[in-house]
Design goal:
283 residues; 47% helix; alpha/beta; globular
């Protein structure tokens, strides 16, 4: 299982019922974590920082994840709710719980796209969740093509689709982003919506990740980001040009810091929040 996928899920579990109440909730997140990954989440929820250094690093990492993930999740969820479609495709789903936690998706055909290994673990963990599961579509974005995998899973290109591309773009090369977007555009009927989370270029972001690697090294472990480095960043202008070039019209593009301030959630990691964005584009 991708460690970034686990960290995102830990952040959502830690924030559930605590950050942005009434706007954010994810009761599926704790269930989708394995027992070892739940312990730092419980400490954050109890606001009980441990004294031991290794556990304290885990605590602070999960607490930061919660504060960074909530504005992003709310922005994406709002964009999904505002544009109902018969089909929803989540690209790089990881431990996403939308298929179970969003009542607005009742009656919607939900497809989750991710690596086969990740999906095998996800199926096992999600077995305890109530409600119909999504259709799992195994795809390695660095090797496989959506245009080949989705038809076999039952996705209908002539029917409007909402696409959620969250927490993935930064880990793909520019060529992989363009190739994936070409496949998305090819299968997006009029009335479709694409919601893209991406990162803007920033020197401070690289420095922050270097500090995180040093912190992890001080506990005797490798950093999450050492194993899963960022491979592409985009300015709002370059992302808009990319989306427009594939037949989409950008309806909104906002940074996570703006979203966090609107929600009233913590902004202790303002630089990281400022450099993450969610673009919404329609056909």
């Amino acid at each position: 299982m991708s460690r970034t996928a686990v960290l995102v899920c830990q952040g959502r579990a830690a924030a559930d019922g605590r950050l942005a109440p009434g706007r954010f909730a994810d009761p599926t997140a704790m269930t989708l974590l394995d027992p070892a990954d739940r312990e730092p989440v419980r400490r954050v929820r109890d606001e009980a920082p441990p004294g031991a250094w290794k556990e304290r690093v885990d605590y602070e990492t999960v607490r930061a994840s919660a504060e960074l993930i909530v504005p992003r999740t709310v922005a994406i969820d709002d964009a999904v709710r505002a544009h109902p479609a018969p089909q929803l495709v989540i690209l790089g789903a990881g431990l996403d719980g939308r298929a179970w936690r969003m009542p607005e998706l009742a009656g919607t055909a939900v497809f989750e796209v991710d690596r086969p290994g990740t999906q095998r673990e996800k199926r096992e963990r999600a077995a305890a969740l109530e409600g119909p599961p999504p259709v799992y579509v195994p795809v390695d974005f660095g090797r496989d093509r959506l245009r080949e995998a989705l038809p076999a899973a039952g996705h209908r290109p002539g029917t409007p689709t909402t696409w959620v591309w969250e927490g993935v773009v930064a880990y793909l090369t520019e060529a992989q982003v363009r190739s994936t977007l070409a496949d998305v555009a090819d299968r997006s009927a009029p009335g479709s919506r694409l919601i893209v989370n991406y990162q803007v270029p920033a020197v401070s972001t690289g420095l922050g990740r270097a500090v995180a690697r040093l912190m992890a090294a001080s506990t005797g472990r490798r950093s999450v980001w050492a194993r899963e480095p960022w491979r592409s960043t985009w300015t709002p202008a370059s992302m808009a040009a990319l989306l427009t070039g594939h037949g989409f019209t950008v309806a909104a593009d906002e940074d996570h810091l703006t979203a966090a301030r609107a929600l009233g959630t913590p902004t202790r990691h303002a630089r990281s929040l400022r450099h993450g964005r969610v673009a919404v584009a329609d056909r």
